[in-house]
Every structure is written in C-alpha cells, then in structure tokens.
Amino acid sequence: MQFQIVGGGIAGASIAYHLVKDGHDVTIYDRLDKGQATQVSAGIISPWVSQRRNKLWYELVRTGAAYYPTFIEELENLTGSKTGYKKTGAVLFFRDEIVLPKAFKRILSKQQDAPEMGELSYLTPERQRELFPKLTTEFPALFLTGAGMVNGAQLLDALKKAIVQLGGKWISSNAVPESGQGITVYTAGAWGNEYQKKVPISHQRAQLLHFTLESDEVYPVVMGLKTHYIVSFGNGRFAIGTTHEDTESFDSSPTAEAKAELLDLAKMYFPGQELKELEMAVGLRPYTPNFLPVIEYVNEQTIVVNGLGSSGLTAAPILGKELSANYSNKPVRLPLEAFRLEEGTDGL
C-alpha cells in the first residue's frame, strides 16, 4: 500500500519505519519545526512507576516498554547507528516514609504482567551513594532495575536512516500530500491543527536544563518529587526537567524564569555540587482533549495520530508496529479502535 506521513517526530518516524519494513511504499514529510518534542525529550522508559490510572494508556506504554529492547536491537543492527538506549535502572524518590511502602506495593503489583520492569527494592542511602554518588540522599527512595532511557534526537536520526535505507522517502519540506495517493497519516504533533480539525490538539512548552558535573559514568534515571526527573548522558552531562506550560504560542525560546526554577531544582538534587555549562532546551508537547493518544480514522484515506505527550518515546514504536500490522495482514495486539477520540475516557 501507499502512505504519505506528515510530521517527522517520533510518531511519524516510528509509523513510517514499520510500514516500510513491512513492504509498503512510504513518503514522510518533515519541515524541521523548532521545538519538536522528540528532539529535546529526556526519553525515560519507565511506565510502570506512573500513577496514571487509565488502563488503555497503561496497556499502550507497558507494551511499548516490553517491545523496546527488540526494537532498538533491530534498528541499531540495521543502521549501525546508536540510539542512546540503556537500561540504567531508576532511583525513585518520595516525599516521606509514609508514602514509601504504599508506592512499593503499587509498583510491585505490576510486576506479574510486566516482568521486563525488573526488580524493585528499597534503597538505603548507602546503596544509593554507590549507584549515584553525587545525588542527594535526603528523600526516601526505591530502585527499579528495568527502567531505562533513550536519546530522542539519536533515535530519530536512526529511524530516518533506516526508512531511507529500506526504500522509503524522507522529504525535509512542508507537506504537500497528493490526493488519490494512498493513505495520508497526520502525525504533526503540536502543529496538528494546521492540517485537520477533527482532532483538536493543544500543547505545552516543556523546558529542560542541561548541565555538567565532574563525572564520567552513566547513572540511573531519577524520578524525583512531583514530576521532576533527571537523566544522565555520560561524560558528566545531565538534564533535569521539566516545566508544564500551557500555551498557544509556538515560540521555542527558553525563559529566564524556567532556567532559574530548574537550576534551583538541580541544586536541591545535587547539593554542594558545582553545575557548569548551563543550557536550556524547549519542546512543544502535544495533547488531546482526553489526554490520551489518538488514532482517529477521519476517512478511508486519512488518519490522525497525535497526543502521545510525555510518553511519546515509550509509546510510538509499538504504535507504529501495530498500525503497520493492521495494514499488513499481521496479528494486532493493541485495540487500535479504542484510541479513537470519541472512545477514550478521562486520561488523568
């Protein structure tokens, strides 16, 4: 079959990769908008610790996390490119000792259906210092061995290389889909309203602070208090995030207020450490009215895939695989029809 995909973020690239791998004719358009969420995403793969209660969303991200090792191995072997994917484990911070056993029980209850999450344990300050020496030990913590991270920009580069290598076309310009040329899939993220009106898309500005410390190792992901997170890229490079700013603007310039807020957080998590080379990154994170990913079949020739939000890097590869399977006479594991806008329920 013939497909035109509009939007070259993680959703569009994942769909295009799986379609072309399954033998379809694929052209993907990406106009290189500044603020594309995939390019700046921290890329944490650890859906099992989320407190979101929506079962449909959790099935998507749980299945996505289970698929990740196979997906990455195949992609890296095909292209020879690195994606930054590592199973680092995750330090999980909580506000007090009262919450800690409740969180342990909640996360552990998911292990039977998700053995890929690894082992969950209480983390003593001594053990935490061994895992992540410069990190504060002020907060009660758990450690989950199966959590990991991927570099969004590197993953996108590898997917683009694979798509072209397998015979797909990647066009870095504004999309001009041709009518009557198969199926058009709109995966335009925060810019989705430009192309269609059936699925209303809103977006948030997500700002991250990149900094360096004197260190050479890659450390575990840190899931901090509230929605804070820290990722370690190696060679002393770290990022902390993120802000959640509702906006109608597409300005991807960082703000002094966000930099100050994130710097204060970094100092809280790394007390007494000298933070250097402070740089900001800004992404525009799309979401839908019900805060769930949407797969909307507008008509037989048009599909909208959007709203993956902060779980995009976890969810997009399996979503691409399942969509391609649906068009390739292969078994489909996820209930794709349930992701239609009118079918979804409250995603909070």
UniProtKB/TrEMBL annotation:
Similarity comment text for this entry: Belongs to the DadA oxidoreductase family.
Cofactor dependence: FAD
InterPro entries, sorted: FAD-dep_OxRdtase (IPR006076), FAD/NAD-bd_sf (IPR036188)
Protein name, entry field: FAD-dependent oxidoreductase
GO MF annotations in UniProt: oxidoreductase activity
Chain ranges of the FAD dependent oxidoreductase domain: 5-324
Highest taxon of source: Bacteria
Xref: Gene3D superfamilies: D-Amino Acid Oxidase, subunit A, domain 2 (3.30.9.10), FAD/NAD(P)-binding domain (3.50.50.60)
Pfam families noted in UniProt: DAO (PF01266)
Keywords for the protein's UniProt record, in alphabetical order: Flavoprotein, Oxidoreductase
Organism, as annotated: Tetzosporium hominis
A cellular-component GO term for this protein: cytoplasm
